[in-house]
Amino acid sequence: MQKDLTTGNETAKIIKLAIPIIGSSFMLLAYNLIDMLWVGRLGSEAVAAVGTSGFYLHLGWAFVSIIMMGIGITVAQLLGNKDYKKAKEVSTNGLIGVLFLTLIFVGLIQVFYNPIIGFFNMNARVEGLAFGYLRWSSVGLILLFTFQVFSRISNSYGDSKTPFRISLIGVILNIILDPIFIFTLDLGVIGAAWASIMSQLVVVTIFWVKRASTFLVSKNEIKISLQQILELAKLGFPPSVQYMIFSIIAIVMAKIVSGFGSEAIAAQKIGHQIEAITFMTIGGLNSAILSYTGQNYGAKLFGRVRRGYWVGIRLSVIIGVIMTALFLLFSTELVALFVKDIKTINIGSNYLKIVGLSQVFMCIEMIATGIINGIGKTRIPASCLLYTS
Q1: In the prediction, which pLDDT does 385 show?
Q2: CA atoms of 117 and 126, how far apart (whole Å)
Q3: Sign of CA dihedral 154, 159, 165, 168
Q4: Is the pLDDT of residue 100 over 80?
Q5: Are 193 and 133 in contact (CB under 8 A)?
Q6: Which run of H or of E encompasses 334?
Q7: Nearest 10 degrees: CA dihedral of 289, 368, 316, 23?
Q8: In the prediction, which pLDDT does 335 show?
Q9: CB proximity list for 69: less than 8 A, separation 6 or greater
Q10: What's the confidence (pLDDT) of residue 136?
Q11: Which distant-in-sequence residues (6+ apart) come within 8 Å of 376 by Cβ?
């Protein structure tokens, strides 16, 4: 069901759209957090293995963003322009493009998992755990990215509640399956990957049954358009390159950290997961701003676009201040939720205090990026961020 974002109070529209998106973002984050909480009971080496694999899984997300980013922008603008038929065509070709890129990435992981994990020079036990977790988790990306495509399309339609409700089902299922696969079936870290895969399979199936006919053309009408896929890639390429560079930098930094032992790797991974609270919150607001901007820009309501920008900036500052205070005041308690090792807790606590100082600036930057991307000027924020980095 489409919700018109081109009328009504700007603040109310953005907040109403953003809250379920933030909830959905936390549901995706919850998959990793739940895995980390259960895997943490296996020790710092298991956490290090999952954390190391996570860098490459995030690189996969950056890779498919070449097309995925363009889907949300283009569909929102088409809906604002009332071109519903083309919106369906773009959504269908976008999904095909994302699945194609995902299969390429998964294939590379399956072939080169040994050297890419070996890059970190970890001990044999951590590497062995990481091998299994990465190979199975990469297969799950096919389901995860399919769900994210549907979520982006749904957000473009102004319907952010459906992705949230379906995500909640997946998280509840993951909570149930994690201890079963990890401990009852004694699969260890591979069990965490399997629990996520099974949960995501249910989530994608529900989304497909409920919304495929609304978002995509019928089976008989499918016409693969290389031109449409390339147009999406043109929009998504600048931010995707930015994300990939940041992912590679994170991998290099993780290699440096690995020289300080599995406790340091575990602390860094836990710190990233906790910092993701900010990223997911402001990322949800970013997605709402992008969809809001796309519809209004497509409808040529430029005044509403400007007013939406200032709404987003004010909200981003509030979120950034809250998260800074949280990281500075409760860093030790937050890390201790995941591990009991004192050394890991101390390292992670210091990490959170340092990154806590950047939260307000990161929030403002992400909202500004959402506005600019929403009007289709994706090269501008990507160029600025790459230049400053």
Answers
A1: 57
A2: 10
A3: positive
A4: yes
A5: yes
A6: helix 331-336
A7: 40
A8: 87
A9: 235, 236, 239, 240, 373, 378
A10: 94
A11: 73, 74, 77, 235, 297
| pLDDT value of position 283 | 84
Decide if 64 contacts 106 (C-beta within 8 A): no
For 153, the token pair is 């399309």
Structure confidence by residue, pLDDT tens digits, 184-241: 999 999 999 999 999 999 999 999 999 998 999 998 888 999 999 999 999 988 888 8
Residue 184 DSSP code: I
Q: Is residue 374 a contact partner of residue 290, using CB atoms and an 8 Å limit? A: yes
Q: What is the pLDDT of residues 309-331, one digit of tens each?
A: 999 999 999 999 999 999 999 98
Within 10 Å of residue 180's Cβ, how many Cβ atoms? 14
CA angle 94, 316, 148 (to 5 degrees): 20
- Please give the model's pTM, rounded to 2 decimal places: 0.81
The C-alpha atoms of residue 40 and residue 46 are separated, in whole angstroms, by 7
Write the DSSP symbol of residue 259.
T
Q: Which of 177, 245, 166 is nearest to 206 (CA)?
A: 166
The C-alpha atoms of residue 57 and residue 329 are separated, in whole angstroms, by: 31
Q: How many CB atoms lie within 10 A of CB 132?
A: 18
Q: What is the pLDDT of residue 89?
A: 96
Contacts of 19 by beta carbon, 8 Å cutoff, 6+ apart: 160, 284
Backbone φ and ψ for 265, nearest 5 degrees, come out as -65, -45
**For the range 4-11, what are the long-range contacts, defined as Cβ-Cβ under 8 Å and sequence gap of 24 or more?**
4/158, 4/295, 5/80, 5/158, 5/291, 5/292, 5/295, 5/296, 6/80, 6/295, 6/296, 6/299, 6/301, 6/304, 10/292, 10/304, 10/307, 10/308, 10/311, 11/311
